[in-house]
Design a protein that fits this description.
- The protein is of the alpha/beta class.
- Helices cover 33% and strands 17% of the residues.
- It has 23 helices and 26 strands.
- Helix 5 links the parallel strand 2 and strand 3.
Length: 808
């Protein structure tokens, strides 16, 4: 123990209280023992320090803070140095606002382009995600605040995210869904890791000793604290034994009673309690020391300028027919689209930031040196068609030399709490584009949104700039790119399929009842498309520049590659050089390409530079599920270098010494994995990959509901009032969707299990109350009602007694 003197001064009940939050955002303080409170705050791309009583859904107002580009946008920079700079700014703002732990970065893998929270995550590739996340963590923690990487782990869908079981084989789990976290932990050394809501192979992530102790602490050397996602604690005792430190938010004593009872019964030892408190104190003491000495202000103007630069270096130019962009000063342009007036610059849900200021595209373009002749709305944001708006846009377009049309994914399409249903742009936006392009073919589309889209309308525009969700300064960044003040250097951190049906897991995502089956295994994103040779709209790593680059003279060694990169164009620019590995195919199955290194290089016109990119400890390894360890398969590898996964002009062979994997896999049974054709994996193949029976995927609708069942399951509850509540929640969500807005409250409640009544009510309900609510849902209305009333009254009395015992 590092803090035995403090532990001696705390009563048993005070120790146990430290393992659950005081309220929504803070932990308990016991000043007489030298224990300070620790304040936590969302979010990954900006502070959400709430004013007054807090809530975890972003419904109540928060202090203004710089809204930086979301992770999906920043990933396009492929620039760890930039991410570290943004992290330093986030750390300074955290210190200024009295926040000790920043809940981010979010770094779950983009398993499917339909993931509703993909805007908060970096990439479909774990290596890129890990390197960028580690950089952001280093930046945040350089200012004394703690970073908390999330959501650990295999948290790939929003539907039923609090109850779903991620069924994934160990090799895929290690190589794809844990590698990014591993890099972040080893290279960024975060003080916090957030356990996710879901189960992982049957055990809740927060109660999973394989995940939290064997891998995170023992294998990776993590020495910080594990905090639950808000409401992700199922059973506190099991979480503490598995390696979790802090349940958030607090339950005002309900979890404490569970732990104290377990201590009396011998289910958990005092040594485990002391160890978890000691680990938490390490972080609380370190961050409070830094917060006391940190400046209580930050330079809002400098941070806004950094947000603008970050957005400009991350946006991806996907099309530029005939060098249509950049637009020359004085070009007569029509600016079209509702999103040109009110930009969509961040996602919905717990990451919502109240910006210090907000750039608007129309204003920024008027200041850019272009001759803006007018603006037309072009479409309604809620998706309803309007021939009048389309006609007005077309009329304005006819008078312009160039048209800048701002389109994007609506807020109600992607949000925390829901997954996307499709990858299509709203029909009314496509109609507006068609009307405008018919009036004037010189159209540049500027896209906003958190992820990939189907692009059947691509031929209707001459240029396409994807700004993702660029934060409060994203509009200014777009103006800089469109006018050539900044050369586009962003590259895609995800693949754009031609159609959703082309995705390898289109049949499996999302899991709709008990389980989410990861049947596609290793073949996610570009790993799948490149293996099976399936055409895509834009490959992983793709992005255009206003200049051109040439690769030559490749040299390959076991510890790295070097090559010459030349700017062959007439303008300065930056290229993201990418290194991919192709492993032996005779032993174990593997994707045709895997990213193993990258570097962003800025060159002047005509300049050549020798670029060296190391091949680190992650380059050649694979996880052997039979030996339960990382190994290097010996044999012939091919190392390829180029601008994206679909364009690799340089390659060379490399012989690598290693082990012979032997007959780890039966090639006949797992033929679909050896070929990469994983679109429809048979049960027998998936079961062989798992090396265990496939868990039951369907709910048992004949069984009574339990504390671990979700409110989604009220649709078949025995109680009429419960079924009515389900209908009301669905109606609330649908009504908001018709208005073009997500409804975080109804979305969260429907995904929530019944135990969430305890875990997320900040003490308004306890376990007895939740069990009474279950009674009502299961058809025992009167009994449940009176039990709930009794539980509510007794909980109020117990709260007062507990505060006295804790000395509060």
């Amino acid at each position: 123990m590092k803090h035995p003197d403090i532990l001696k001064q705390l009563t048993l009940e005070q120790k146990v209280a430290l393992l659950s939050g005081k309220d929504v955002w803070s932990t308990y303080a016991f000043p007489q023992a030298g224990v300070p409170s620790m304040v936590m705050s969302d979010g990954p791309h900006g502070l959400r320090r709430q004013l007054g009583r807090g809530d975890h859904l972003g419904q109540r107002p928060s202090q203004p803070a710089t809204c930086f580009p979301t992770a999906a946008c920043l990933a396009g920079s492929w620039d760890p140095a930039l991410l570290e700079e943004v992290g330093r700014a986030l750390g300074r703002e955290a210190a200024a606002q009295g926040v000790h732990m920043l809940l981010g970065p979010g770094m779950n893998l983009k398993r499917s382009p339909l993931g509703g929270r993909n805007f908060e995550y970096f990439s479909e590739d774990p290596y890129l995600s890990g390197k960028l996340s580690a950089a952001l963590v280093r930046g945040v923690q350089s200012q004394g605040a703690a970073a908390c990487v999330k959501h650990f782990a295999a948290n790939s869908q929003e539907l039923l995210r609090m109850t779903s079981d991620s069924v994934v084989d160990e090799r895929t789990f290690r190589e794809l869904y844990l590698t990014g976290f591993e890099i972040a932990v080893k290279e960024g050394r975060p003080l916090g890791v957030m356990s996710s809501y879901n189960r992982v192979n049957g055990a809740y992530a927060n109660e999973n000793p394989h995940l939290l102790t064997e891998i995170l602490r023992e294998e990776w050397g993590f020495t910080g604290m594990v905090v639950t996602d808000w409401g992700a604690c199922n059973r506190q005792v099991d979480g503490l034994k598995a390696g979790s430190n802090l349940e958030m938010p607090g339950t005002q004593g309900d979890s404490d009673r569970e732990v104290l009872t377990a201590l009396d019964r011998g289910e958990i030892s005092l040594d485990v309690i002391d160890r978890r408190v000691d680990e938490l104190l390490d972080v609380a003491l370190a961050t409070n020391k830094a917060a006391r000495t940190a400046p209580k202000h930050f330079d809002e103007g400098a941070h806004h300028a950094l947000a603008r630069r970050a957005a400009a270096e991350s946006a991806v130019l996907l099309k530029n027919e005939g060098g249509f962009l950049p637009l020359a000063p004085g070009t007569r342009v029509a600016v079209l689209g509702d999103l040109a007036l009110e930009p969509r610059y961040q996602g919905a849900g717990s990451s919502l930031v109240r910006p210090t200021r907000l750039d608007r595209p129309l204003d920024c373009l008027k200041e850019s040196g272009l001759d803006v002749i007018g603006h037309a709305k072009a479409y309604r944001r809620n998706g309803q068609p309007s021939e009048r708006l389309e006609r007005e846009a077309a009329e304005l377009a006819r008078r312009a030399e160039a048209v800048l049309l701002f389109l994007g994914i609506p807020e109600c399409f992607e949000s925390e709490g829901l997954d996307r249903d499709h990858l299509a742009l709203p029909d009314n936006q496509v109609r507006a584009l068609e009307a405008v392009a018919q009036a004037n073919p010189n159209v540049a589309v500027v896209l906003a949104g958190g992820g990939a889209l189907e692009l059947p309308w691509l031929g209707r525009c001459k240029a396409l700039l994807h700004g993702y969700l660029g934060g409060q300064a994203g509009a200014g960044a777009a103006a800089d790119l469109l006018t050539g003040k900044v050369d586009p250097s962003g590259r895609l951190a995800e693949t754009f399929p031609l159609v959703l049906a082309d995705a390898p897991n289109a049949r499996y995502f999302p899991g709709r009842e008990r389980t989410a089956e990861y049947r596609e295994g290793l073949f996610v994103g570009y790993r799948y498309y490149q293996t099976v040779g399936k055409p895509v709209a834009f490959p992983f790593g793709f992005g255009l520049s206003y200049t051109t680059f040439a690769y030559s003279d490749l040299s390959v060694r076991r510890d790295g590659v070097s090559f010459t990169l030349t700017n062959t164009g007439a303008r300065p620019g930056a290229e993201v050089a990418q290194v991919y590995l192709t492993g032996p195919r005779d032993g174990v199955f593997r994707p045709a390409l895997e990213l193993k290194g990258f570097q962003k290089v800025t060159l002047q016109p005509g300049e050549s530079r020798r670029v060296a990119i190391p091949l680190d400890e992650y380059a050649f390894r694979w996880f052997n599920p039979k030996t339960n360890q990382w190994e290097v398969e010996g044999g012939a590898y091919r190392i390829s270098v180029g601008p994206n996964a679909g364009d690799l002009p340089l390659s060379a062979a490399l012989e690598v010494e290693g082990t012979d994997p032997g007959a780890v896999y039966d090639k006949k049974t797992l033929a679909c994995y050896f070929s990469g054709q994983v679109e429809d994996v048979p049960d027998g193949a998936f079961q062989a990959l798992l090396d265990r029976p496939i868990p039951e995927a369907k709910w048992d609708r004949s069984a009574p509901l339990t504390l671990e069942d979700s409110f989604y399951q009220l649709s078949y509850a025995r109680g009429r009032a419960a079924r009515l509540a389900n209908w009301v929640l669905g109606r609330m969500a649908r009504r908001k969707a018709r208005l073009g807005e997500p409804d975080p409250v109804s979305l969260f409640i429907r995904n929530m299990p019944f135990r969430g009544l305890v875990k997320l009510s900040n003490g308004l309900a306890d376990t007895k109350f939740a069990l009474a609510a279950l009674d009502m849902a299961n058809g025992h209305g009167f009994r449940g009602f009176f039990r709930a009333l009794s539980a509510f009254v007794s909980a109020r009395l117990e709260h007062r007694r507990r505060r006295k015992r804790l000395g509060l």
